[in-house]
Write a structure and sequence with these properties.
Layout (H helix, E strand, L loop, with lengths): L1 E2 L9 H10 L6 E4 L4 H9 L4 E4 L8 H11 L1
Length: 73
């Protein structure tokens, strides 16, 4: 599952606990805004598989992050 960032000031990490409560075994990769890497790291510490910056320089990493998350599951 890929969680994208929400409205300004509402990073996807806020939804992580709710998703985990309903789907405890879900593989979760977050898209985080540049400058919010701390949110991605916090999400990984809270159970997300990985995070990718939502920026053209990094978005190409998303398929590999998803594949790796599925492999680890």
């Amino acid at each position: 599952m890929v969680l994208g960032h929400g409205a300004a000031g509402s990073p996807a990490v806020d939804a992580l606990d709710a998703v985990r409560a309903k789907c405890p075994g879900a593989c979760i990769v977050l898209l985080v805004r540049p400058g919010e890497e701390h949110s991605g790291l916090a999400a990984v510490r809270r159970g997300a598989e990985d995070f990718v910056l939502d920026h053209s320089d990094y978005i190409g990493r998303l398929p590999g992050a998803i594949s790796a998350a599925i492999t680890r599951a």
